[in-house]
Amino acid sequence: MVSQMKRADLIAALEELGESPPGRWTVTEMRSRLMHLHEEHGIVLGKTKRTSLQEMVVQLNKASGRKANLQQHCQDLGVPFTGNETKAQLQKSAMIRIYEKSAPDPTDPVGFGKGASLTYAEIKEDQQYCNWVKLTWQENPKSCCPQLARLAQWLLNENVKMEPDENPKTSKGYPSEPDLKVISLKKEPSCAASSSAASSSVPSSAIVDVLQTLTETVKELKDEIQDAKEGKRKGQKTSSDSESFHKI
User: Where is this region: Disordered (predicted)?
Assistant: First the structure.
């Protein structure tokens, strides 16, 4: 399986498909890209039978040689089009319909998010992540990507148990995408996650120093405000005494 391939094997496999993976790519990123290419080309490793998704992708690729054939294929899939779409637009619409029509299989790739390089069977072991997938789809199915919607429905059909949600809610009320519990198969964090991780790695002594500086600054400001108030009161008292003196 792709998920068990080493770095050198992944690079060789990608190069065979005409890809030159950047040197900064992690093993997980290369696995994800290789599985995506396999899905696009309908490649099945070993002698196993193609899944419904793989077979439909193979047929789509065969029809993509000529635009007229692709349009006919989209019509057969029930994909509406005007005739002005590019081949890329037709292929994208066709893939969405394929995700909707193809029968899910445990060996299908997740294809999105932090578990993109995992199969349905592998992601099923992470119940917390499965909770997030199902709840996100149930809350607003129309806004979900087709890959997430497909996985959510497969999980529901598999009767995967829901565990208590441990994730904080976002401003929209949906749970944020949780980290995978299968650490060895996690993707590299995003820029936002990297910033968060970097901040969490700051030594505790440095954090204490910053807090102490802030506390001292606030105290100094309070003292200055208090001194200003007292000075104002003294000025008012002096003025009042002066007025009394003139009256006498």
Answer: 223-248
User: How far is Cα 39 from Cα 55, in angstroms, rounded to an integer?
Assistant: 9
Tokens of 79: 């994909």
HSE, CB side, 13 Å, CA atoms: give it for residue 36. Answer: 13
Do 46 and 38 contact (CB within 8 A), yes or no? no
**Tally of residues, the chain:** 248
Find all residues with CB under 8 Å of 67, minimum gap 6, and list them. 87, 90
Which residues contact residue 5 at a Cβ distance below 8 angstroms, ignoring those fewer than 6 apart? 13, 31, 34
Task: Please spell the DSSP secondary structure of 223-235, one letter per residue.
Answer: HHHHHHHHHHHHH
User: In 150-178, which positions are buried (b, 16+ CB within 10 angstroms) versus exposed (e)?
Assistant: bbbbbbeeeebeeeeeebeeeeeeebebb
pLDDT in tens, 200-219: 333 333 333 434 444 454 55
Measured between alpha carbons, how far is 102 from 56 in angstroms, rounded to an integer? 7
Backbone φ/ψ region at 57: left (φ over 0), alpha (ψ -120 to 50), beta? alpha
Please report where in the chains the tokens 């100094």 appear, as a residue. 220
Separation between Cα atoms, residue 43 and residue 55, nearest integer Å: 9
Which of 5-9, 145-149, 210-214, 236-240 ranks highest by mean pLDDT? 145-149
The set of residues, in sequence order, having a beta carbon less than 8 Å from that of 91 and lying 6+ positions away, is 60, 64, 70
List, in sequence order, every residue forming a beta bridge with 169; answer none if it has no partner.
Answer: 175
User: What DSSP letter does each residue of 175-217 carry, written as one string?
Assistant: BPPPPPS-GGGPPPP-HHHHHHHHHHTS-HHHHHHHHHHHHHH
